[in-house]
């Protein structure tokens, strides 16, 4: 058998965890999340995205309030400035929102990108929506879009090896910086 990494295996199978051409990162600690160990918010009475707008911007990490949707910082960010865009309505899927909500969420994502470029010199972004438990949504009952700022070299093995993510600023500092720049970008 000829493999791209020039090693030969005489058996007809490879062991899980053996590096291959996909360079998989094995993270078995995530299985608790995948199997439903995380708490799922079912309705608007226990949903943090429904409760957020009823509290102060500082308490809820809100950086901007729109007409149909609002923007807040992710409480568990992948990178500093990781934004979430949520409709005020408690709906689970992208195809559940109105044309107006769709338009405002798109405009807020664009504005969030402009702000993050200005305040943090972001060089790229990951944008996405995880829908449903099978789709990986942490809060599947309330639609939210991620806007994750990226910089060259911001990914490393520290979270995998040490179980730690280094974030260079506190959430309250980042929230204030983004909120202050929101209307100027």
Spell out the key features of this protein.
185 residues, alpha+beta, disordered N terminus, HIT family, subunit A
Task: Write up this protein.
By secondary structure, the protein is an alpha+beta fold. The protein has a single domain (36-181), classed as HIT family, subunit A. Helices cover 27% and strands 14% of the residues. The chain is built from 6 helices and 5 strands. The protein has helices at 31-34, 48-51, 57-60, 99-120, 158-162, 171-181, and strands spanning 62-65, 69-73, 83-87, 124-128, 145-150. Strands 1-2-3-5-4 form a 5-stranded antiparallel beta sheet. Strand 1 (62-65) and strand 2 form a beta hairpin. It is globular and about 35 Å long. Residues 1-9 have low confidence and may be disordered.
What's this entry about, in short?
With 185 residues, the protein is an alpha+beta fold.
């Amino acid at each position: 058998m000829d493999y791209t990494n020039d090693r030969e295996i005489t058996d007809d199978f490879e062991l899980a965890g053996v590096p291959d051409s996909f360079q998989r990162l094995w993270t078995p600690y995530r299985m608790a999340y995948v199997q439903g160990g995380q708490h799922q918010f079912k309705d608007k009475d226990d949903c943090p995205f429904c409760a957020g707008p009823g509290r102060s911007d500082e308490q809820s990490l809100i950086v901007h309030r729109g007409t149909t949707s609002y923007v807040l910082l992710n409480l568990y960010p992948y990178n500093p400035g990781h934004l979430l865009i949520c409709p005020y309505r408690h709906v689970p899927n992208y195809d559940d929102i109105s044309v107006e909500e769709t338009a405002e969420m798109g405009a807020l994502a664009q504005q969030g990108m402009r702000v993050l470029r200005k305040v943090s010199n972001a060089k790229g972004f990951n944008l996405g929506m995880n829908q449903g438990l099978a789709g990986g949504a942490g809060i599947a009952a309330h639609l939210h879009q991620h806007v994750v700022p990226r910089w060259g070299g911001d990914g490393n093995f520290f979270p995998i090896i040490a179980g730690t993510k280094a974030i260079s600023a506190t959430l309250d500092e980042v929230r204030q910086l983004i909120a202050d720049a929101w209307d100027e970008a």
